[in-house]
Every structure is written in C-alpha cells, then in structure tokens.
C-alpha cells in the first residue's frame, strides 16, 4: 500500500450555501488556509463574515497588549478585505486566557443568531491541530462554537438573547479546520495567491516571528498542498480539508 495515499476518499463540499460565519480565537487564525476557501466563496457571491473572540493582543512579544490589540485588529480587517470580507467583529475575551464556558458559548451563539449563517466554520478543538499541539484558546473556541451552534437554535438556552432581539437560528452545516479526521474538501487551487496576500497583511505580526518561521508565500501553499494530498483527486493541487457535520436533518 502506498503510504502517501489518502486513508479514505474525501468528498467535495457541496457549496449550496449563501452565507458563512468563521469563528476563531485570534487574528491570523483564518489566514492559515481557510482564507483560500473564503476567497473562492466571496468570488462566487457568498456572504462571509468573521467573528474573532480576541484581538490577539498577547501575540507579539515585542509589543505590549495595549498597543498590539488595535494593531492586530486593524491587520485582521485589512486581511479580510483581501479575500472579499468586509464584516469583521471581535469579542472581548483575553488572548491566551479564553475559557470554555457559558459566557463563551453565549457570545458565539449571539453572533450566530445575528449573522444567521448557513455554514459555520471554526477550528478543531482536539489536542492536535494538523498534527501540532493545539493551542488553549483554539481548543476552547472550537468546542464552544460546536456547542453554540446548537445553542443558537434553542430559544430556551440563553433566553436573554431573545430579549436582546436575537431570535433562534438553525445552522445547516458546521465545519472544523485543522482536523486530523477530515471528511470533505474545498478545491482552492485557483485561490492560493490571494490567500498568501491575506496572511501577508498581518505585517506587524509576521515581522515579529523568528526568521526561521516560514514566510506566508511558503507556509500557505504548504498547508494547502498537504490538504490536496489527503484529497488525492486529479487536478486538485491545493485544498482546504474539513470535518463537516450536516445539521440539516
């Protein structure tokens, strides 16, 4: 058996949705691959919005959180614009100290009810993320998002959201990136360059990384090429792989 062959065939994601919400912990989380799919979807007329639970204020060692937070927020907005996203919202959780719990679930459920997406994308909440040790904020946000998708559809969970004017919303598809057990893929072979440009928009963050850390034009293609290897389909050179949960019933 060829050790490089995909363990199981992945299905192409059926892109019959018109709205997507990306929920992540930090500025730049979306840009490590997911932005390529976002570019594909916005080019096709899909509405994509971002919700980040922190401003990434603890992410630059040479810059205090008070200074870094506004810088990283601005860089995320610029990065989103590169791939056609102009609605970017932020929570008020502390970078590096995001805690799974009711407050986090409620904040995400509120955003789901407000945006009313057909597809919600978040990061995998396992201990491994694409083979690497998964960061604490990523785990908390991914798990809370999985639960908040259910919370958003139940008016008796967080009834205060109804009082705020946010009626329940049922999400049809939930997808996890960085998963060790993908089920589907998005062919992003034609959107690699714009995804690289999206990550390059994080100028201050990238400049503070060690010189040995791969540059965006190396890292993004590498991630998406690894995704394509898992797909193993002819003609797919770069792919975003996802673990997709169909909640349409």
TrEMBL record:
Keywords: Zinc. GO terms for biological process: glycoside metabolic process. InterPro entries: GlcNAc_PI_deacetylase-related (IPR003737), LmbE-like_dom_sf (IPR024078). One of its GO terms (molecular function) is hydrolase activity, acting on carbon-nitrogen (but not peptide) bonds, in linear amides. Transmembrane segments: none annotated. It comes from the Bacteria. Pfam families: PIG-L. This is LmbE family N-acetylglucosaminyl deacetylase.
